[in-house]
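Input record (one chain):
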Amino acid sequence: QRRVHGIIQIMLRTLMHAGRNLTRFNQLTFNQMLFFAKLIPVRLGDLGEGTKEATIKEWFVKPGSEVKEFQDLCEVITDKLVAKIPSSYAGKIVQLHYKNDEICQVGQPLLDMEVGDHVQVKEVKKDEPAKHPAPPAPKKEEPKAEAPLHEEAHDNVYTTHAVRVLAKQLKVDITKVKGSQKRGRVTKEDVILFAETGGKASPQTTAPAPPKVPPKLDVPVASKKDKVIKLTGFKKAMARSMTDALAIPHDNLVDEFNIASMKAARKAYMDANPGKKITYLPFFVKAFSSAMIDFPIFNSHSSNARDGDGHSTDYVMKSEHNISLAVDSPSGLLVPNLKSVQRKSILQIHEEIKELVERARKSTLTQDDLTNGTFTVSNIGNIGCIIGTPVIFRPQVGIVALGQIRTLPDFKIIKGESKPVPKEIITSSLSFDHRFIDGATGAKFITRVKQFVENLDILLLNLKQSSSNQSTFDPVSYTHL
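The corresponding structure, as predicted from the sequence alone:
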């Protein structure tokens, strides 16, 4: 028994000694982890499309938060998109450099994060000093040449991965594309222009537009009771876009459409499909798209090409009918677009409009949703307006505003007497770029749309014709003035 008791005591002392060593080891490891951790700035990366700044919409973390790799840090809003910024590292948030609704420049630190010493951090040389002082970081190897964040410089071509993917899709040799940005950086617009022109035109050979001289205006004085609102995000983009639109010579035409045929078709569909609803908007979108088969100039983009006098020389006739919709969202006016409308049915257009409007109101639109639109439809009748003078959304050359549906008297001869007969009409206000489209062409186009709206049977017959015409239509027609 004494021998067994001795063995047990030896075993207990051994376990206690091992436990004390393990505790000291754990404490040492934890302290070593703290000692060898480093503080790094997490910068706002390149968001594409020449974006230079972003407004902080919402933070998902706060100082002291433990984050995992790829976890969303915040949501930002630019003049083109809403995006969530993920973390490239796992670590602990130390400091946020911006509050909600503040603006951060691309390349500047969004926050400071504590990460393990083993984490390799890629530092990028910046053109401007940071707004907030960043903590010292370990010395890293400097890049051989300056380039925007997350950009590649393969084959001596500076561009983003997304632009390379686009070039591959369009079967464009990106090494032959001349970049329009600083240091010859190639943008998406450069690749698209190269594909459309076969390399015959480039931003380098285009005469620059005359410099813009801002008008001298009196600076308003705000009193203590006044409130100064700073334009950010989409509202800032709208201000810039509308200012640029002043350079476009607008022509406007107004007409009235009788929607009796459209109303009958809408009612027939809902009667045959109880519980399902469809609005008038997809009918109009399809009618305008179908009219563009006969008048493709309305489905065009203005070009930045200028002659020696600074006048436009080209416009690009687009093959796909990407119809933009003006949407009133919490973030401001958004203009997302429906892709390839000419290939879709009215029901398909209806479903996609619902999805697009829902994403716009939830601020979940993608960059693709907001780019490459070719013609805009604005439904001002939803808020009670009848007639408008819509402003063209560059580089598009046309926009239409649809007014409120009204019941008006239509006088007809009945049994030899003129009697009023009620009819439901909607007003269409068309604006187009008078540099490329003359008034007669604009009138013929809106008359063609009216024919489709007031006689859906003709629209259906034209859809069959449109299918065959589309197959022979050149994918991209580049027209020289």
